[in-house]
Model the fold of this input.
Amino acid sequence: MVMAKRKMFVSMVFVLLLVQVGASHEVIEEEADRISALPGQPKVSFQQFSGYVTVNEMAGRALFYWLTEAAHDPLSKPLVVWLNGGPGCSSVAYGASEEIGPFRINKTASGLYLNKFSWNTLANLLFLETPAGVGFSYSNRSSDLLDTGDRRTAEDSLQFLIRWMDRFPRYKNREVYITGESYAGHYVPQLAREIMSYNTKSKHQINLKGFMVGNAVTDNYYDNLGTVTYWWSHAMISDRTYRQLINTCDFRRQKESNECESMYSYAMDQEFGNIDQYNIYAPPCNNSDGSRATHQTMHLPHRPHQTFRQISGYDPCTEKYAEVYYNRPDVQRALHANITKIPYKWTACSEILNRNWNDTDVSVLPIYREMIDAGLRIWVFSGDVDSVVPVTATRYSLAQLKLSTKIPWYPWYVKKQVGGWTEVYKGITFATVRGAGHEVPLFKPRAALQLLKSFLKGEPLPKS
Done:
């Protein structure tokens, strides 16, 4: 505790010295965001920064970020932006703390340990909690939490990037890649389109090179059809329930009929059993008394209002450690977070946002077509034991693009084992990750790091 206070004091003195010597506004802001060390953090060589960027002054909307720079030679490495979905889930809780970030939280939430497959071995990682209301991000206009959706998320995320790069000018000409998973299957291509549109009107370009999404919500109709098919083909539901879902549900509708909804509920409550839907072969997170974990009804697959619980992994309760750790006052001080004293606890996912999501694209395939035409590098990957946004859903959706094949289907390898299967199309690379659930880097961290490596190089996945 004494050491933490001393580091904070030294940091404050350094900022005051910068002010006195007339350092630029950007340098002062950057230094104010510097993380000296997080509570219980092992020693590291890379720099970290976190804090807020205001994206709308009138509403008082500010988005929280955490930058973990590359472990080696960060100035030569690209910037990888990571977004989690939900909608309403935190990139700090998931991406940073149990997937691609440099640290993992221990079981007692007393400290951190290193993730040797962190993506910051290859890139500078920028975790963004978006939209306002997710994690530490906030709005002073409380009605914003009851009136948000795809459009504002994309617009605010663009504003964040523009203003963040003003604070960190060394990233202004850096190669940028946007990555994410699940409902970020909307956020990522939508933000890419916002950036490309901004670049046509502005002198100051954001050097966006491509994007990559995993187990990504893509197209309502084909995602839902593919999900029901996955359930049936993996023996999660009966032939009878499968036929009834196919015959009863209009997968094109935003809101299904009561009859269809009741069929979904029946399938999940009576036929799935106590499984983790985000990895059907992993043990679920049960309460300590051995009873079934709290069951939240998942309505239509991968539309807003579904279950936003994303606990899955070798330890299926990792989300709980994050909720303890990031509510610690000393952790919030170290992160420069919750400076306005938000009137609710930090949570991994915001139920308020999830339940009040007002606009959602029926399909992002039109954006894929635009971004392919714009020359962006686009990769889509899919953990093949996820039943929420399963591999069949993604394959059905991507098939609608009718792209020609450049390299036909083949197994790709990591450490002499089949990591999954891949096909390279003209405009998109698609890859499966064998044995991975919804959060691919959590289950298959080595394979996920290989995905990033090949993606950044623009090379097909290794054949041997």
User: Anything to note?
Assistant: Residues 2-20 form the longest helix (19 residues). The mean pLDDT is 89.
